[in-house]
Every structure is written in structure tokens, then in C-alpha cells.
Amino acid sequence: MASQKCLHTQERTFALAESVRNVSITKWFYLNHRLSVKRRTLMEHFLSDLGVPYQRVEAREQPAINVSRLRLVKKFAANPMQHIAQISITTTFVDFLNKLVDTPWALGVTVGQFVVWIEDDAKPVSNFHAKLQLALQALPHMWDVASLGWWGEGREADCINRQWYQAHEPCLEWHPNGKPKPIYAGVQALLLGAGAHSAHLRDVYTAVPIQDCDSILCNTSINRFVAADALFEHRPGLSGGSSKLMVNKKAAAMVHVPRRKVQPHSK
Predict the structure, then answer these.
(1) Pairing, β 145-151 against β 224-227
(2) In terms of C-beta distances under 8 Å and separation of at least 24 residues, what long-range contacts does 131-135 make, across chains too?
(3) How many Cα atoms occupy the beta-carbon half-sphere of 185 within 13 Å?
(4) Could you tell me the CA-to-CA distances from 62 to 39, 81, 87, 137 in Å, in that order?
(5) Which residues of the chain carry a pLDDT beneath 70?
(6) DSSP structural state of residue 125
(7) Can you give the pLDDT at residue 215?
(8) How high is the mean pLDDT of the chain?
(9) DSSP classification of residue 235
């Protein structure tokens, strides 16, 4: 399990980890396509059991995209349907970020509040609330996005404390047999802040050529923390994508996106 790499690591003390922020989640949003009725039913069952306020975000049917921003997804997707799905997820997420930054009240939240974005193939782990509380209490102060659900591997050198990694490049490595080894992959569940907190994340997603959603999270200018113990996992049989899409990560990571003068974590 990923967290084992952090259990025996001495906690590092530096500017990013000197203080933690009191994070309380106001609302949960899950992404779902209108035809994915089974996934919608399961997600609403999970979220109802968790006792959290939630709202469905419908995935775009035929995303209106700027062709000049489309790169690599079509070339490396396993099939045309996967290509369409990847574009739909990414463009729907960008729409959501635009609302979260510019008009959070349209989502039923206010500036300064925190929300969780979940894909509809995510399942909360057992003892979820206790694990979430431990994670939130140890989350360093300065972050653009925090991954609560992910897959792949973590690096001991990235451990901030027993609860969190700070994601660094590369987020794709290679096994000796030539197969890709993803690091901190997936966007099953993301912790986000309403208003200026998510402005830089939105800027990155609108500047980088459209590709699979988690590849863009590899951009080196994003200050991203990853829960050492993933709080969500893929439900069996509902996940899966071409490992060839991992090659997008390096391209996304190297796109330079400068920060605005107002930092996304500022109050």
C-alpha cells in the first residue's frame, strides 16, 4: 500500500508543511454521463451512505473544443470511444473549474469553501470518515489541489508527513521490461477550493492542450498533494484505460503556466 512508504519516513519541515489549514468540505460533486445509469445509482448510494451533501455533474455529450488545443489523446487512445470519453471528462472538468473560480454560487458554494470532485467509478474505502479526518488535519497549508483518490505508485522521497505526498516530476517512470509505471495517477477524487484558490489550476487546464484529465495534473507549476492512503479506489470492472495515454504526462508537465499575482491559496 502506498502509505507504507511514508510510515517510516521522518517528517520533513519546510515552508509548505509548517502549517496546516482548517479544511471543512462543503459539498461533493460527482461526474456522470446520462447513459451511465448504473454508475449514477452506485455513486448516489455511496454518497448517501457517507451522509454528505452532493450534486451530480453531467458529462458533456459532444464537447465544443478548440482543435488547436487537442493533442495526443486521439493518437494514443485505445479506441474512438475512449478518445471521446477523455475529451468529455477534461472539458467537463474545465467547465466545473470555471464555475468554481468565477461563479461558485452557481454551484451552491461560496468563495473560501472547499469541495470534492469525484469520478463515477470511485468507491470510498472502509473507515472513510476517520481516514479523511486524519488526512485533512495533516494537509499542508499551500496547495492548489489535493488528490484523495488515485492509483499507481508513490515515492518515499515525496513524503511530507505520514498522510501526504507532494507530487513531483516525473509522474511516469518505466519498469525494466519497458512497461510504464504511473506515479500518482488518476483523478478519482480531488479536493478543491472555491474562488481564487483554484484559479491557477483552472489556468493550467485552459492553457495545456486537451488530453486525459490526470495527465494535466502532472504540470510542474501545480502545487499538488496526494493522500498517502487513497480514500477512494476504482470500482472493479468500471475502470481501465490505455496505458499508452501515460505518454501525455510528460508533455503536459512541461507546459509553462505562470501564476497570477493573486495566489490560488490566498484568502
Answers:
(1) parallel
(2) 131/229, 131/231, 132/231, 134/163, 135/163, 135/164, 135/227, 135/229, 135/231
(3) 22
(4) 20, 12, 9, 40
(5) 1-5, 7-21, 62-84, 174-175, 180, 235-267
(6) P
(7) 80
(8) 78
(9) P
Place of cell 491557477: 200
Question: In whole angstroms, what separates CA 160 from the centre of its chain?
Answer: 18
Which tens digit of pLDDT belongs to each residue from 64-110? Answer: 555 555 554 444 444 545 566 777 888 899 999 999 999 999 999 99
In the DSSP assignment, the letter for residue 1 is -
Instruction: Give the whole-angstrom CA distance, residue 248 versus residue 148.
Output: 22
Residue 93: predicted pLDDT: 93
Sign of CA dihedral 21, 201, 3, 120: positive
- Contact present, 216 and 150 (Cβ < 8 Å): no
Cα angle at 223 between 204 and 206, to 5 degrees? 5
Closest CA to 30 of 83, 93, 102: 93
